[in-house]
Amino acid sequence: MSTMSPLHERFAAQGAVFEDRNGYDIAVRTIGNKEEADAIRNGIGVWDASDLGKIMVRGGAARELLDRTLTGDIEGLYENAIRYTLLLDEDGRIVADVQVYNNFDEFMVTCSAGSKARVLKALEANNSGGAEITDASDKQAVICIEGPKAWQVPQKLAGLDVRSLRLLTFTECEISGAKVLLARIGYCGEYGYTLFVPREAALAVLDTVLERAPEAVPCGRDVQDLLRLEVRSFNLEKDIPNGESPLQAGLHWMIHFRKSEFVGREAIMREKQLGVTQKLVAFEVLAENSQFSSSDIRDGADVIGRIVNFAYSERRGRPIGLAYLAEAYGWPGVDLLIHSENGEIPIHTVSAPFIHTESNRIQIS
Amino acid sequence: MKSGTQAVVQQHREFSERIKNVLIDRLELNLEPDEIAEDAPLFGMGLGLDSIDALVLIVGIEDEFNITVDTSSHNIYRSVNTLTEFLIANVDQKEATAQ
Questions:
Q1: pTM higher than 0.90, yes or no?
Q2: Which chain B residues touch A331 with a CB distance below 8 Å?
């Protein structure tokens, strides 16, 4: 039976459609994907991410364990800062993307519900120093607030001067009498804030969010895939179908190459030395209304890549996607063909992101 | 591979390498060129550059490619790839390589 989010009741009242995802009953749609995408791209969207894995790592050995296990620089992670990084396997393949929160040397590691067991297992396997590792996923609800106007919400909720809350930092505040961890982190290329709320206060805090920001639209999870794709924000479930490496997926920035140790380092340094054989590249379909299900990409008769993630983007006015292409083709400006049951469909490789968001243009005032 | 495709890729590869070297040299990044993905965001989540870095980068790009860059066109600076596309479209090839 699925675990129910503490926010379920409110999303149900909005007419949300729920689906079981990794054992959690998740609101996948509310008013419709188009309307929800418009809300997050033009105003404020709010969604339930309570299924997020939350692992607490404490004790004198905590920082060293995380630094030795994950690809990012945890040794140099400041207090109240967040590191977005990766867990790899020994072969250098991506296991999970994780965010590490440093709360005065007590660390919270967040990851998708689907990857939580793998993250826990890796941390426990590398825990030679005796750090205390606990799964705290069910203790807190998670409310995500994102959009070009989302920066107004923390001000309205907690009177915070949000200009002082930089990207990938967090603070604690009180909302509706509850102690809330407020993080500035988003996923769709807009101003994004994530609230970690004690489970018992979840409904009251969500009600306060919607009351103080009445223009905020409750959204489902499905629209996230398109919005993330539009800005090429990493999507573990879509972008890594066959355990590809971060160098192939273009996630170099999540790796601290100067570190002497992390799980998978040897394989990554070897791949770096030899050069990648394939790269994840953005493309757009040249015809506006193409239908295709095949994932093969060809240059003439030769199969030189495969599509892993695609959707129709209204903002781009055509289907867009990501494909792994042989390195020699893995650059913008290349014309290729999707071999489909309806014939050949021309595509063109492009630079990411596909769109430039409103949040990139405006300044918090 | 068609020769046209080969030429597009070759030009992109060369410009990307030069941009990465400008990034590393001017911003004194502790990185090697093959540690920067061409589509990775330069600002915010990604390389994490800030507005001061942006000014230094613009001067570096202008010097390297002998071009004047519109500082208000933020979309040019999203990634190495967006910079490359802008430069390929706007740089006088002979003049740029003569620098």
A1: yes
A2: 8-9, 12-13, 16, 38, 81
